[in-house]
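Researcher: Here's my situation. A collaborator sent me these components and asked whether they could plausibly form a single complex. I don't have experimental data yet, so a predicted model of the whole assembly would be a useful starting point for our discussion.
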Amino acid sequence: MGLKLMAELGLDGSGFQTGLARAEGLAHGVADGLKSFVIQGIGIYTVEQALAKTVETARELVETSERLGIGPEKLQVLRQAARESGVEMDMLARAFEKIDVAREKALSVGPEANQMRAAFAGLGIGMGQLRSTSAADLFTGPMRQQALTRSPEELGALFREMGVRNFGPFSRC
Amino acid sequence: MAKVTIIPEWAAAAAPEPVRIFGVQLRPLSLGLYRLLQRFGCGFVEAEETLVGVADLMLGILICSMRVDEFVEFASDPRSVKYLRRWGKRIRREIRADGGFSIYAKFGLFLHYLREGQRIPKYWEEGPQRESLGPCHWSQAVEVCLRSELGWTKEEVDETPLAKAITDYFQHAQRMGAVRLMTAEEEAQGEANARVMEALEAKLKEAKN
């Protein structure tokens, strides 16, 4: 079965216009009769809304992906895991930002830095990983591994030191 | 009597997991539904590489949510537009409520439903090589065999899950000595071998570079 999904939805929205034009074309009977009947029945604005929301979601995905330093594909997997665990993606994104702040602190000098390094070390993360790994990769890599073997209370205490409160739901992601 | 092997994964495909898209529960894909998808030009089942759009998706969902005779009646009834209007309203509500909505995810779900519904068991060809069936589509070959050799009725062809139809077709072919279905162990061994070959190919490529 050969198949190529329609890929005209550009992130700048220009493709969206093309998509709309095509959808309108369908509704005006340019394409097959039954398809046209179905589209007219559910309403051309339903198709418009579906395409517009898809563009909006894609834009938001790219922005979040850039902000958190995670590839869009990985972000989508994470978002699905968060959804299934009942965690809002915004909460998870804020947690990543806090982990990034804690990482910066751990890489600096002073008593607070030592405290942060100890917290990361408690999660099995050394200085090398702190220098080279993004918060999202720390979360989906070593932190996730720790979540499989340690109690939420224990993890919660370490995360609180990094400024991430209410860690409980994240451990299920 | 020859031992008939049913591959567990394949047996599970004969009673597929229910799929729901835009609030509509899809029936297990059957030969009858597959033919309707083809008849009404749903791009998802085109043999050639095809562009599919929202209209293909909506039509596909509608067809696969009904019995064959129900859909034929639906398609010729002007009152169906009322149902479509209600469905459109339901879809818009879902789009508004879903923060991460993507039409591509729905395409993916429908594609997954189609692929799961027409999975072919792994087998070895046995006996002398047979001539090609010519221009006959595989679904037609399966239907002819089911009706003429196994006595299936039109109703059974239209409504029985396609996965079950393909299983019966292949088991008949096995009884006739044309193929031998792989056991679960043989399939697992085959997959392990394929992984080893992939790893080997990757290493060879790496060495070349």
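Model: Some features of this prediction you could bring to your collaborator: Residues 93 and 167 of chain A are 13 Å apart (CA to CA). The first strand of chain A starts at residue 4 and ends at 5.
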